[in-house]
Fold this sequence. Notes:
The complex is a heterotrimer.
Chain A: E1 2-11, E2 15-25, E3 30-35, H1 41-48, E4 56-61, E5 64-65, H2 71-77, E6 78-81, H3 94-104, H4 109-122, H5 138-150, E7 156-160, H6 168-183, E8 187-191, H7 195-201, E9 204-209, E10 212-218, H8 219-222, H9 226-231, H10 238-249, H11 260-271
Parallel strand pairs in A: 3-8, 3-9, 6-7, 7-8
Antiparallel strand pairs in A: 1-2, 1-4, 4-5, 9-10
Helix pairs in contact in A: 3-4, 3-5
Chain B: H1 22-38, H2 42-58, H3 62-86, H4 92-116, H5 119-128, H6 133-161, H7 172-177, H8 180-203, H9 222-244
Helix pairs in contact in B: 1-4, 1-9, 2-4, 3-4, 5-6, 6-8
Chain C: E1 4-13, E2 21-28, E3 33-37, H1 44-51, H2 54-57, E4 61-69, E5 72-73, H3 79-82, E6 86-89, H4 102-112, H5 117-130, H6 146-158, E7 164-168, H7 176-193, E8 196-200, H8 204-207, E9 213-218, E10 221-226, H9 228-233, H10 235-239, H11 246-257, H12 268-280
Parallel strand pairs in C: 3-8, 3-9, 6-7, 7-8
Antiparallel strand pairs in C: 1-2, 1-4, 4-5, 9-10
Helix pairs in contact in C: 4-5, 4-6, 6-7
Amino acid sequence: MIMIEDVHFAYDGIYTALQGVSLQIEKGECVAIMGTNGAGKTTLVKHMNGLLRPQHGRVIVDGADAKNLSIAELSRIVGLVWQNPDHQLFLDSVRKEIEFGLKNLGFTPEETDAQCTQTLKNLGLEGLAERSPFALSGGERKRVALATVLATEPQVLALDEPTIGQDAQQKELLARMLMDLNDRGRTVIVVTHDIEFVIEHFPRTIAMAEGRIVADGSTSSVLSNEDVLERCSLTLPQLTVAARALHKAFPQVSERLTLLSELEDAVSGILGGTQ
Amino acid sequence: MMSFLEVFQYTRQDSAVHNLDPRSKMMLAFTLAVISLLFLNIIPLMIILMAMLPLLAAAKSLRRWARSMKGMSYLLLFIIIFNTLLSTVSNPFSHSIALAIRLLALMTSFSIFFLTVHPDQLAQALIQMRVRFEFAFAMSMAMRYVPTLGQEAYAIMDAQKARGVELDKGNVLKRIRNIVPIIVPLIIVSIRRALSVAESMESRGFGASENRTYMELLRFRRRDWAVLFVSILLLVGSIYTRLFVTLPIWMLFQLPF
Amino acid sequence: MALVEFADFSFKYLGADSLALRKVSASVNEGEYVILTGPSGCGKTTLCRTANGLVPHFHRGYIAGNVCIDGQNTRDATVAKLASTVGLVFQNPANQLVTLNVEKELAFGPENLGVVPEEVRQRVEEIIDLLNLEHLREKHPHEMSGGEQQRVAMGATLALKPKVLVADEPTSNLDPRSAELILDIIANLNKRNGMTVILVEHRLDLVAKDASRIILMDKGQIIADGIPRDVLSMDISSEIGVGIPKATQVYKRLQAKGIELSRVPLTGEELALLVGEAKRR
């Protein structure tokens, strides 16, 4: 679905951001991209929808070389959801915001209308359709920004730091929505710092540092590798800390647990279930 | 071409000029500017311009000045040509050359100030010259947030480009309309940011008392008084010369066309 | 007398439909480390702003009840007056740095309050020493990472020598390592310097072990207030969706199955210890 081949990129030709990055993401995958600030995570994702073009290497999106496609064309395939919704809201109603993207990306008036109505429904925004986005709360604005991207039904959904400032419940809802989209065949990519969020919902993690990919594989293996964590400025997930501590005393417990239920079962197993 | 602005940008250097109090430099720049405006003959203006070069050298900024002047060359050519064609005075070309040199002299006199005064020092100078501290603060805060705002603008452009807004295409009218999706979010984001910044400033007592203290105060030293004295002398001398002294013939030289 | 006293305090923002705080009552004594947490919109941010007078002086609205800081009622005391007692650190690091370098930023607060220049300089040097800011002394905010910026912001607040440090989600915008660093600084300020701390934080697994108390809020009210082990093991904390540490979650699930550990674990290591203990019994 998305192939990045040996991409090198430097801002203004001087500030190196990506140094020979290669990766492959298949259709329907669920991937997290993690790393320090300045590691190149966002830069990498911006190559996927054409906002940035590599100085060396290739970006292939859905079989076509990205260099032959415009940003608008690529955005129909790869939808980017930004961290700050206020960076894009500027119209006087939520409905118009959703229609804006649809019109620009070439949807016909009938399609625009249909998609808009459907998206408002899916995200529970019907009641706010005619309200000005500026009058909404932070969480509502985030939903509107998400809606503007989902409305165009891109095959790949990439989100930049979607969990910042969200409480546990909101994160749960977000995760559920993303998993739902993934179940329906969409490819989901998330750029984030949130280790707990990743270990719970993302089977694959790409860890980056200083413009290079340091590790790319199953989340449980990547996020339990001390070396990788050190280089990418990450910390051990809670479950891994618990699993390791238990493993020391009870070697039968795997150090690579990723689910709370697994930890629970492990402890139950040790204590025999009856006290 | 925009590189001509380089001569107004502060760079940190350890030079005699940099180490002067900004207020004495303000007087110096003002004096040099006024002198540049007093005369409209090629020779005197050339002398004035040449006299400023040692100051630039002392400020270790001669190369920067030269680069800026190079960047100005198109503008100067433009001024000379158009002025010569449209002027009604007797020797239009000569007049235009004089104007061009005057412009250079004016720019150079201000550049001596801006090259050697850090925005913070300027703010402090204004405060110590009895400007209300809120205004001086507003000025340095604006400067503090310029790079942040720039970053924000780029992020907004990215976000809107991803929604299909094409910023580099279309006729002039379309391009102007395409500014709206950039400007509106930028303004909103700036307002939200301003509220947040205000909270932080209030929480640290900003505006609590008129008797605000300053950790680093600017103090005039002997050299600053010397610069001030010399500037005033030059200023008075030049005005006197302009008004009462007839310049020697060779100074009034004009090109024949 | 408590250092921070909320007495039946209610507040509604101007133009809002409902109360942001409903009859909130709590007292914080000197030296306590209190965590304030709850779902979005529960009023924790508003409560923070109440502690230094931003509510009601900066954010106007309807108020009822009283808030007393070190004996001063916030209705009468201005924000500036309270600034030397309560320091407030906010979520966005960049928005707390208003000057062109770190030294000036640290001096900003004391200068505002008219502190003598020599003492301002002294405080600046102390903070640089305390928070390891020497290499950042001359840097412009834009030249620093989020974590560094937040450290400077904290320093700028500490320069006012407050008795209480209130931090409203100071780590939300930071990467995990920087977040841990900031939280370590806060924990040390409390442990070593006796600073009274009120911290709003979602990542309870990082802070619950150092805190002396957790206050849980929902819809403008305090619904639980006690030691971390008690509050986090209550059913209500699971119900309203607060970031309960995974170890504590496991404890609760085991409890439901009939397996009892001798106390409520707050970290993975504690969990392992307790399981070991239980096994030996």
